Amino acid sequence: MKKRLPIFVTLILTFALFQAKAAGITDNMQQNSFKKSAHSSEEIQMQKIAFYSQELKLSQEEAQIFWPIYNEYWEACGKARTMTLRSLNALNKATGPESTATDAEIERLTNEYFANYKTESELPAKYFEKFKKILPIKKAARIFHTEEKFRRMLIKQFRNKPTQTPQSK
């Protein structure tokens, strides 16, 4: 159950994002936060490096080897997630009330979604094999717990951060 909860939450958030986008809500949010996003992204990346290095107790030598592989993993996860969401969006459109998709097309889109989802879900195990070659097994195993811990920390930061209201014109 605990393993499925993050997937369930991700699917719910994805659905909510698609609904918000369809309603045009996110357009104003993006325009208002565009200037801050690059700066925030850099800050988050710096926080992430410091947090992971501290949590995993990485030596300087370990960090030099770890970060290129972890960044490769993170990029692969992002690409896989994008593919999963695209296939889910295509499936959603194909099963919508105005769709003229055939049963065969819907089945193909469903299978494509499952294949993308499977690829995405296999990445942690694939990269764990790489991590344990460069780090002690305990540190390699803690990477995924550290990711979740960092994610929770960011969520708390964003919840506690005062929001700015859009300026009226």
Q: What can you see in these coordinates?
A:
The chain has 169 residues and is mainly alpha-helical. The chain is built from 5 helices and no strands. Helix 3 (60-94) runs antiparallel to helix 4 and helix 4 crosses helix 5.
Q: What's the helix and strand layout?
A:
Layout: H1 4-23, H2 25-56, H3 60-94, H4 103-134, H5 137-160
Biggest β-sheet description: none
Terminus-to-terminus distance? 48 Å
Helix-strand makeup class = mainly alpha
Instruction: State mean pLDDT (0 to 100 scale).
Output: 81
Order of helices and strands: HHHHH
Tally of helical segments: 5
Helix proportion: over 70%
Q: Runs with pLDDT <50, length 5+?
A: 4-38
- The best one-word shape is flat
List keywords for this structure.
85% helix, flat, 169 residues
Short description:
The chain has 169 residues and is mostly helical.
